[in-house]
Structure formats: C-alpha cells, structure tokens
C-alpha cells in the first residue's frame, strides 16, 4: 500500500503542534556571498534570477480567491511525470501557523499523490525560514532553548528554519532500487507572522519588521534553488505566491505590486468569478499592467455568472481566461475530487506557462542578432560592436536595467543615466507611469498654439518659479534639447538685432553676418544651427557635417578638476599655469571676483573680444555656454569665475546670453539650475532631459520679457515662426510637473537639503580622492550627480574616438554597472534621489577596475622594458 515514509536516517521528533507535527528543526544552507567585503552599509544585492526554467508570480484581485489552490493544482499537473521539480515560494505569510499556504500545497500534493498513485517516487518538503517571535513560539513552544543555534533573533524575526520532508513512494519503485528521488516538490515560506491581518499590521504589532530589500534578497536566494544530486537534468517550474490582492501592502507597507516589481516576473492573475468580480479582476489586471508586468493568463472559480465572457471581450483575446470548477463550500471536504476535476484546467494553464516561457526565452536570445541587422544606432561604429557586446534590456526599474545575460536576468545600474535623462527611483517611476496614463486618457494630444490646458500651464508656472525665477517670464516648449537651442538662437539673434537697431538692415538689402560666442569643447545638439554654434570637433567634422562652417568665435576656457587629490584650475592662456584650491566649494565662492585670477580672466576675455571686433566684420549675436560642466565634450568642468566674467562682459556689450542647461538643469549638478552656481542670470535658457524624469522627450526654452518683446508687433511675420506638432504635449508636461516637484521635495527626495535648496553630497570624498591618486587617472570631476574620470592616455588613446577605456567598461558591466564612455573619459551618473550608499558602491567598483587596469598596464610596461 502506497504511503508516507521519511528518510531512513531520520528520527521524527515529537509533535510540536498539531499542524507542524512532522516538522524538523534544523538549519538550512543559504548561499550568501559579498562581492565587495569592504561595504559598510546594508545594501540589497542586485536582482537576478535564472531563465533556465519557468518562474511565475501568482497574483489575485483580492484575498481568498484561490491563489493557493491554483499553486497546488499546478504542482499536481507539473509533477505528473518523472524528472520534475516544482518549487513553491510563499514570501509573506500571516496567520501562521494556523494558516500556512506552503504547508497546504505540501499536504494537498501528498494526499493527491496517495489517492492517485504514480509510477515514480517524489520527495516533498516544506520549510519556514523566518518567523516573528509570537509565531515562532507557537510552533516551537517550550522546547526552545536560548542557546539553540537554530533560533536566532534578528530584528524581531527568528531564524526558525522549521523543516519537514517525506518520500512519496512510487507504485513501481522501491527503496532498494532507487538511489535518488526522480521528482521533487519543494515548498518554502520565507517570512511568517502570527496575526491573521495584513502583513504591514502584523509586522508592526509583533515588532517584527522586514524591509523590502530583505524580502527581495531572500527571494533571490530562494530562486537559486537547484535540483538535488542525481536530478540535474530535471525539468523545473517555480511559482511565487503573493499575499492578499495585487495592491495589498507588504511588511513595510509598500504595495506588493511595487515590492516585487524589480523582478518583473510573468504573472498569473487569479480573478474573481463572483458578483462584482469583473470590476475587481480588471482593476487588478490594470494595476499590474501599469507597472510593467506581463500577465500570461487569468484564472478564476466558476460561480455560474459567466464572468469570463465580458473579461475575454475586455482583454480582446490577448490574455487567456481559464475557469475552474466551483469549489466545494463544505469545510470538511478534502478537495481531492475537486483537484481531480480541475486537472484539465491546470494542464491548460501549465501549457500556457511553458509556452510563454519558451517564447520569451526565444525572443530574448534572438534580439541581439536581429538588432545588429535592423538598427542604425546613434554615435556607434557598427563594425566595432560584435553581437555579444549588445546589451539586451528586458525592463527598467528605477535606476537599474534588467539585462538578459546567457540564461538569466540580472540587474545593471544605468551609469550613463540613459544619456543623462534619468533621475527617477522605482517609486517615482510608478508615479510617472500613473500620471502619464491619466494624462493620455484625459487629453491624448491637443494642439498648443492659442490654447491652454492644465499640464502645460502648471509646468510653465513651475519653471518660471523654479529654474527661471528672478529673470524669465516666458516659456517656449519644443521636443528636445537640440531644438530648444535652435529656438534660443533665434530668440537671441532677434533681441540682438532689436537692441542694436539692425532689424531694418535686411529690408534695405544689406547683409548681416551674425555669429555666436561659445567655448571650445561645448556641445549644443545635432541639428544644423546648433552644430554651427559649436567649435570644430568630431561631431562637426566633414565626415559628419559637410555643411559645417562654424558660425562662431570660440574661446579656450580654464578647466577645473581634481588631480592627485587636489582641486586645480588650468588655464591655457596663462602659459599652462595651474592654480590649486583647498576644496571644490572654494572654486564657487564669489569672493574670487577680486582675485588675481579674475583679473587674468577679464584681461584675456577683453583681448579676445577686441581682436574679434578688429579682424571681423561679423556681429556677435549671442553668447551660448553650458554652465559649469560641458558634458559631451568630455565632462569638462569650466571655472565658474571665468563664465561669470564672460557673461558680464557680454551683457555690457548688449550680447544676449544663452545658458544651455539641457544637461546641467534640474539638479544634475546639485542645484535646480546651474545658473545658481555661476551667480549670474541669462537672457535665455534651454532645459530638457531630467525635466521629465527622462520618461518622455520634452524641452523648454525660457526667455526674459525683453526677449519676448522683441517678437511682438502687428504682423504675424514678426512672431517666432518655429514649432513642432507635439509642442507642449500633455503627457510630457504632466511628467515634467511630477518630476520637478518630486526632485525638490525633501519628503520624496531624501537627498534634498531644503534650507539651502541643494542636494547633499552623494559621492564619498575620500574614495573620490583615492581614485584621483591612481597613476592611470589624469583627472577627476565630481559634482552633484556626476562623477567622471579621464584616464591618462596619449595620442590615439586620447579623445572621443579612443577605445582606451573599453576594457574597464566591459569589466564594470560585468560588475552590474552599465557605462558608455566618452573616449578615454569614464563617467557614472546617478539620479537626484540615489542614496549615497549606492554611490559609494559604484565608486568602489570603479576604483577596483581602474586599479586592476593600472596593474595590468604596469605589468605590460615592465615586461616590455625587460
């Protein structure tokens, strides 16, 4: 007769409770490894999970709809043949031990196996890893010994690690003929509380809090589960069953749909077949979709209302809807007959899950190859990008990519901020998605000229009270940074012509040659006018822009950096002299206005301007600068004193001043506007990138009232005839409103120092100095969210075309830090909300890889010398 048997070497302990009479108290092994053992702070390890087998999350539109029944039914369907392993994980359990979903799956599978014998054996196990003290006392009772190494109190939780297992003997096997189990059922509860209430209430009441990062770390370790010895070739399926409904809180109070979002595992939604269940099921579905989850199927109990008909209509047959037989209401029913009747439905669900897993894997594996065939990537030499170097991004959560690597999904920090656009953390990303969804549903897209709607008006008001406070009165919307610069140039030229009574010159047939004044190394975009405002560079060369003539006069500015642990200013015009400062903050002090260096700058600028006047018949129609840091030019920090003096001298000559803050604006450099760091104001300024949180393109050109007045008149021909079909599009404006408010609110951005309206220091100063002292490093620039390192290189190894940093970048990507260098300049960019702990971890990785690079370089030099 088929029955239950334990391992021969085991002795069953006496009953502890009726429910856990088969439990054994023994520690379970866990794989924990710190890559960097010099971490000082608790940071959750990066999210990672295998793609060697299907892993699904079981959600429900409400509590008590049958998630655990679905999990148990799937286990029975999957382990219907040999060489199978089914892993059931219950991260959060309340009402424990009277209510234990993992034990229910374990018990019902065992009972079903006994009632329907299979020819092969199955080893089944159930374990509980951590429990609150009340829950632990309930299952361990008076047998608990204060010296017991198994029970360790950690923050109100105990490592109880209770464990039960049994061998379900197959009808055609015997103990003597079977060395290893041929199939496995592994059930685990990760965290348990005694009170049968919402997890956040139970955790608070029982003083057993657990953070979101701890839950994710534990889940990651549990997903590393592998088949036992002898079963390495087993097929595996894993399901993770959530607690309550889709938006039920986790232990910290975070909604579970947000808590598990970093994994973004494909979902099975258990719907509601009762009266009112259609609405609840659709709401749960929309909540998951809004957060980027893929729903493989919806399944629910038949209550005779045919809820599947309207649901299929709503889903438009994009999502399968499965209906289970009605569940017996008799509490004494063992449900075995119901499971038997439901096997066809569970087999269909299993087939859907396996098919979805295979299709997803197939697509992920072919994407890199197809991308190489159909994409034309910007700023990329395709001949230098082999297929294996293509990064396949499955999703994004906050600051991290979820990247497909071989047979797994792993996390990479977006170190280049996706070309400097990114700033949201995971919480803000969800808020942006919600606001944009609302705005798209309310407005779609509406025309902007001569119209007004709330998102555009609110954003304009925020910009004028924020980055434009004290000088700007008008906001001109466009689609991206480059076009914002084009608009700014048109504004500046009109103001210059108006101020200098030159508007009628062209009417009289006279030609006016207008040029811009700019700094070498600056970059203002890829459109034709913006490129003309830049000094010759790889971006403007003949291979890129044969029309380029450089309609500008370009000055060589002094640069600021940390070299060998000291902050220095280098000015080519001073005979390569180097000026040292005790700190970076000293460089931004206005007291420098009366310094010797200020006199040197003033003299140099006046000489340049005088030379231009004497040698050219052109007019300088505008000054355009990137305040403080020139991004695409190699993350060069410009002495703010020089830029301040240059702005003042141009204003003295009625030359309109443009600040290109597409890169520097909205806290990228630690202030809402980089103009605050220069202690001077422009006439016109351009903003984009971080303005929308990087979620969607939008740009704004702000102008003073006198600039606006130069376009007013009785003729439409005098107006600014420039625009885009999607100017001030509602979704972009809504995203920008959310982002601007979020970044500057100390309640949502803990890095904000409200009193001084600046970000706290994000990068560890001592570690920054250590990096600057490496012999492979020429200079370091660190400010706000930006950290950049220029590697010491000469000749072809230096400059934008250099591949000198490629080996370091490759290693850092392996470390979970996605980077894209600017030639021999390696930089990492966090967001305004990134924690200093995360920034320190990033610096540690960079230090380790540059140090390794330095050692290899020294070894090669020594070998060559020998």
UniProtKB/TrEMBL annotation:
It is found in: Mitochondrion. It comes from the Eukaryota. GO terms for cellular component: mitochondrion. InterPro entries: Aminotrans_3, Aminotrans_3_PPA_site, P-loop_NTPase, PyrdxlP-dep_Trfase, PyrdxlP-dep_Trfase_major, PyrdxlP-dep_Trfase_small. Pfam families: AAA_26, Aminotran_3. Keywords: Aminotransferase, Pyridoxal phosphate, Transferase. GO terms for molecular function: transaminase activity. PROSITE patterns: AA_TRANSFER_CLASS_3. Belongs to the class-III pyridoxal-phosphate-dependent aminotransferase family. This is Bifunctional dethiobiotin synthetase/7,8-diamino-pelargonic acid aminotransferase, mitochondrial.
């Amino acid at each position: 007769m088929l029955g239950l048997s334990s391992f021969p070497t085991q002795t069953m302990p006496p009953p502890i409770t009726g429910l856990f009479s088969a439990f054994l108290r023994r520690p379970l092994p866990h794989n924990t490894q710190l890559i960097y053992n010099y971490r000082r702070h608790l940071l959750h390890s990066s999210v990672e999970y295998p793609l060697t087998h299907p892993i699904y999350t079981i959600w429900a539109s409400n509590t008590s709809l049958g998630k655990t029944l679905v999990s148990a039914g799937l286990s029975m369907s999957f382990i219907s043949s040999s060489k199978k392993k089914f892993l059931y994980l219950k991260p959060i359990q309340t009402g424990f031990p009277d209510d234990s979903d993992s034990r229910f799956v374990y018990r019902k599978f065992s009972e079903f196996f006994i009632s329907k014998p299979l020819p092969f054996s199955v080893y089944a196990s159930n374990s509980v890893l951590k429990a609150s003290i009340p829950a632990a006392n309930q299952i361990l009772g008076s047998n608990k010994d204060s010296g017991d190494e198994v029970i360790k109190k950690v923050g109100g939780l105990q490592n109880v690690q209770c464990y039960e297992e049994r061998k379900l003997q197959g009808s055609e096997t015997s103990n003597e003929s079977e060395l290893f189990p041929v199939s496995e059922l592994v059930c685990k509860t990760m965290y348990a509380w005694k009170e049968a209430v919402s997890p956040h209430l139970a955790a608070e009441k029982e003083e057993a809090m657990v953070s979101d990062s701890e839950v994710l770390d534990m889940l990651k370790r549990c997903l590393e589960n592998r088949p036992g010895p002898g079963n390495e070739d087993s097929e595996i399926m894993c399901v993770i069953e959530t607690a309550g409904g889709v938006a039920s809180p986790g232990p910290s109070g975070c909604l579970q749909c947000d808590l598990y979002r970093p994994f973004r595992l494909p979902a099975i939604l258990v719907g509601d077949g009762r009266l009112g269940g259609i609405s609840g099921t659709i709401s749960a579905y929309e909540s998951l979709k809004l957060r980027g989850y893929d729903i493989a199927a919806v399944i629910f109990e038949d209550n005779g209302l045919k809820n599947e008909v309207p649901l299929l209509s709503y889903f438009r047959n994009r999502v399968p809807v499965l209906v289970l037989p009605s569940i017996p209401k008799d509490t004494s029913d063992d449900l075995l007959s119901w499971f038997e009747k439901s096997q066809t439905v569970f087999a269909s669900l299993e087939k859907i899950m396996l098919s979805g897993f295979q299709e997803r894997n197939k697509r992920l594996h072919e994407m890199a190859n197809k991308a190489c065939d159909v994409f034309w990537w910007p700023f990329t030499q395709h001949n230098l990008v082999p297929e294996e170097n293509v990064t396949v991004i499955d999703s994004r959560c906050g600051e991290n990519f979820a990247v497909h690597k071989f047979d797994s999904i792993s996390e990479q920090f977006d170190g280049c901020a996706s070309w400097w656009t990114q700033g949201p953390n995971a919480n803000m990303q969800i808020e942006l998605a919600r606001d944009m969804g609302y705005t798209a549903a309310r407005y779609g897209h509406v025309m902007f000229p001569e119209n007004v709607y709330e998102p555009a008006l609110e954003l304009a008001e925020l910009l004028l009270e924020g980055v434009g406070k004290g000088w700007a009165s008008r906001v001109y919307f466009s689609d991206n940074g480059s076009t914002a610069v084009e608009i700014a140039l048109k504004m500046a030229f009109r103001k210059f012509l108006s101020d200098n009574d030159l508007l009628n010159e062209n009417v009289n047939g006279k030609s006016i040659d207008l040029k811009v004044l700019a700094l070498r190394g600056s970059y203002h975009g890829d459109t034709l006018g913006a490129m003309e405002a830049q000094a010759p560079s790889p971006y403007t060369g003949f291979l890129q822009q044969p029309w380029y003539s450089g309609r500008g006069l370009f000055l060589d500015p002094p640069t600021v950096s940390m070299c060998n642990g000291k902050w220095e200013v280098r000015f080519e015009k001073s005979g390569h002299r180097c000026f040292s400062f005790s700190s970076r903050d000293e460089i931004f002090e206005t007291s420098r206005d009366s310094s010797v260096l200020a006199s040197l700058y003033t003299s140099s600028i006046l000489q340049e301007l005088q030379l231009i006047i004497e040698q050219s018949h052109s007019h300088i129609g505008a000054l355009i600068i990137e305040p403080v840091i020139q991004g695409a030019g190699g993350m060069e920090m410009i002495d703010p004193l020089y830029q301040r003096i240059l702005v003042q001298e141009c204003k003295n000559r009625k030359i309109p001043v443009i600040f290109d803050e597409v890169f520097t604006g909205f806290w990228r450099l630690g202030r809402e506007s980089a103009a605050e760091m220069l202690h001077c104001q422009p006439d016109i300024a351009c903003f984009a990138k971080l303005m929308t949180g990087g979620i969607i393109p939008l740009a704004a050109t702000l102008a003073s009232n006198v600039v606006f007045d130069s376009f007013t008149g009785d003729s439409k021909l005098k107006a600014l005839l420039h625009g885009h079909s999607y100017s001030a599009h509602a979704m972009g404006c809504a995203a920008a409103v959310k982002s601007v408010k979020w970044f500057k609110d100390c309640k949502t951005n803990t890095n904000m120092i409200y009193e001084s309206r600046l970000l706290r220091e994000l990068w560890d100063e001592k570690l920054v100095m250590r990096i600057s002292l490496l012999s492979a490093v020429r200079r370091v620039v660190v400010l706000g969210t930006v950290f950049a390192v220029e590697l010491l290189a000469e000749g072809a190894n230096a400059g934008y075309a250099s591949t000198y940093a490629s080996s370091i970048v490759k290693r850092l990507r392996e470390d979970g830090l996605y980077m894209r260098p600017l030639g021999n300049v390696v930089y990492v960019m966090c967001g305004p909300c990134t924690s200093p702990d995360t920034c320190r971890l990033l610096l540690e990785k960079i230090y380790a890889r540059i140090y390794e690079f330095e050692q290899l370089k020294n070894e090669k030099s020594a070998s060559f010398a020998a």
